[in-house]
Design brief:
Elements: H1 3-21, E1 25-30, E2 38-40, E3 43-45, H2 47-58, E4 62-67, H3 70-78, E5 84-89, E6 99-100, E7 106-115, E8 132-135, H4 144-148, E9 153-156, H5 160-168, E10 174-178, H6 179-188, E11 195-197, E12 203-211, H7 215-232, H8 235-243
Parallel strand pairs: 1-4, 1-5, 8-9, 8-10
Antiparallel strand pairs: 2-3, 5-12, 6-12, 7-10, 7-11, 7-12
Helix pairs in contact: 1-7, 2-7
Keywords: Signal
Domain Solute-binding protein family 3/N-terminal: 25-248
Protein name: Transporter substrate-binding domain-containing protein
Length: 252
């Protein structure tokens, strides 16, 4: 590594330490999406919440997290009422209004859930012809062919819970959701015996922490990414992933 590169890294490190030294509070907003981030008896919980809290604690930053509907999360960041959004997909068109921390928080596997008493096997888009698929408003589905297909009809629901409710009542044929999130929600609602999912994924994506465009927050983003990569190499991170690997491991 050249002297110039070492000087740049040292400068960034000092800037990040300066943010932490003042005992700053980072105001984040998010929409509940268990088991990644959700409320448990009025307290924030979830895999990505715990990861974010741990990394910020190491940087000397206090986390202030508020739960809002997804569209209000985007509006809060746009209007400067929040410093960032916890758990958001990285889209090129979002880069103009927010800064994405380089290291992702979680990997997402989008699958199609079905009612066990009315299964719809999925291997290709043609299998979805003329079906009604439940989606969540404001959410991004990264597979372009699925996102733009005209073979099936999309129907929004106000919440993920509502989507699964419509599924077991046959008001929609399938519901698209992250595999881990859908299984967790189904367990919380007592629907394990009534729903299942097609093993072929619709797509894969990653969730990130995104911050407002601000020099101070830009320095924090660099520091956060470095510390997150370090945390991912530790046994504590592996144990955290294991605990959230299946609904059975989590307390109701």
């Amino acid at each position: 590594m050249s002297l110039f590169q070492r000087q740049i890294i040292a400068t960034l490190f000092l800037c990040c330490c300066a943010f932490a030294a003042r005992g700053e509070t980072l105001r984040l907003v998010t929409d509940a999406w268990a088991p990644y981030v959700y409320e448990d008896n009025g307290q924030a919980a979830g895999l990505d919440y715990e990861i974010t809290r741990e990394v910020l604690q190491r940087l000397g930053v206090t986390l202030d997290l508020q739960f809002l509907p997804w569209k209000r999360c985007l509006l809060a960041l746009e209007q400067g009422h929040a410093d960032g959004i916890l758990d958001i997909f990285h889209l090129p068109e979002r880069e103009a209004s927010m800064l994405f921390v380089e290291e992702p928080l979680s990997e997402v596997e989008l699958v199609l859930f079905y009612a066990r008493n009315r299964p719809y096997p999925y291997e290709s888009l043609e299998d979805l012809r003329e079906l009604v698929i439940g989606i969540s408003p404001g959410y991004w589905y990264n597979d372009e062919t699925f996102r733009t297909s005209t073979l099936f009809r999309r129907e929004e629901a106000p919440t993920h819970e509502a989507n699964l409710g419509k599924l077991i009542r046959h008001r929609v044929d399938l519901v698209v959701n992250d595999r881990r999130a859908g299984l967790y929600l189904g367990a919380q609602l007592g629907l394990q015996g009534q729903i299942d999912y097609n093993r072929k994924a619709v797509g894969h994506d990653r969730m990130y922490l995104a911050l407002r465009h601000d020099p101070k927050l830009a320095r924090l983003a660099v520091s956060f990414a470095v510390e997150l990569r370090r945390f991912k190499r530790e046994p504590a991170y592996a144990q955290l992933q294991l605990r959230y690997a299946s609904p059975e491991r989590l307390k109701p």
